[in-house]
Design a protein that fits this description.
With 315 residues, the chain is mainly α. It contains twelve helices and four strands; from the N terminus they run H-H-H-E-E-E-E-H-H-H-H-H-H-H-H-H.
Length: 315
């Protein structure tokens, strides 16, 4: 479990504010948070240090006010990042990438960070990317532009049903990975993130056995992480890879129910791991997507939130 960020008191002048920001930035760096993601993580650390609460998207003009309390503190902290890291903050902001099939190929989709009342839409015209966030209105995103190197020719040929299915999938993946981003930075959750990223890369790289194993590991460690935070023991060894058994513990002890069919899709048997059974592209893709479905299911259950928030700050 990551040690909560602490600081003796709210800053009283620019020098103390600068010291606080350097410490916050160093703490986020030590947690492995990339520069473009650090402004998003500020509210959590400020909560840990000062019991801070409020709108995570304060108006920029608040940074001009005197003092360092409430929304003014966060507005000044975000301005600090704008001044210190500038162009580095303009890198692609993404919760991660997922594979998706469109046409007769699998593509990498970047699940972007969205702020406030961001609008999403699907337009075959890839020149219509949407609007970046500005002071004049909410941002918007053409979801087809979130697909890496997606060609206009294929976009033109997609049927309405395919576009609608892709939009539904993107929304589900966004909700799952956005929730994952807010999880505590425990060892198990951190490795689960890496396992899912590896599964995605293996699907795209046509390494289907590795993709299925990575998906199973991501699901397994996510469930184990919740059980561990709840103080519920779970088996190790061969039984520790049984997603149905692990999910059964969540249900039995905490009333958190996960879809059995989805869990079975994410399972990776010994025969698969040792190439005694064939693995197809479709199996690898559906196993990867099963992890997203599991994350989504966990995120919607109040009892999951109760476990994660016990002793932890909200968000």
């Amino acid at each position: 479990m990551t040690t909560p960020f602490s600081w003796p008191h709210l800053p009283k002048d620019p020098a103390e504010f600068e010291s606080l920001m350097r410490a916050l930035d160093a703490a986020l760096d030590a947690q492995g948070v990339k520069v473009p993601q650090r402004p998003m993580r500020l509210p959590r650390l400020l909560w840990e240090a000062f019991g801070w609460g409020g709108d995570v998207l304060p108006k920029k003009e608040l940074a001009q006010r005197e003092g360092y309390e409430g929304q003014v503190l966060l507005a000044k902290a975000k301005r600090w990042y704008d001044e210190v890291y500038a162009e580095h903050l303009k890198m692609r902001l993404s919760y991660g990438a997922v594979p998706v099939r469109l046409g007769s190929a699998i593509w990498r989709v970047h699940i972007g960070v969205q702020y406030g009342d961001a609008k999403i839409f699907v337009d075959r015209n890839l020149q219509n990317r949407g609007e970046s966030m500005s002071a004049t209105g909410p941002s918007s995103l053409n979801l087809l532009c979130a697909i890496e190197a997606f060609p206009q020719g294929l976009a033109n040929r997609l049927h309405d049903a395919q576009l609608q299915a892709f939009e539904r999938f993107y929304v589900m993946a966004h909700e799952a990975l956005q929730w994952r981003e807010q999880l505590p930075r425990t060892d198990l959750f951190n490795v689960a993130r890496a396992d899912f990223a590896a599964s995605t890369e293996d699907v795209l790289g046509h390494r289907y056995v590795q993709a299925r194993w990575g998906a199973e590991q991501a699901a397994e460690k996510t469930i184990k992480a919740v059980l561990k935070i709840a103080g519920t023991s779970y088996p190790t060894g061969a039984k520790g890879h049984d997603l149905l058994l692990l999910a059964g513990l969540l249900d039995q002890h905490h009333g958190i129910t996960l879809n059995q069919d989805v869990l079975s899709t994410a399972l990776c048997s010994t025969g698969v791991r040792y190439v005694q059974e064939p693995s197809t592209e479709d199996q690898a893709l559906t196993a990867n997507h099963a992890v997203l479905a599991i994350l989504r299911e966990l995120s919607t259950q109040e009892r999951t939130a109760n476990i994660l928030n016990s002793g932890s700050p909200p968000g």
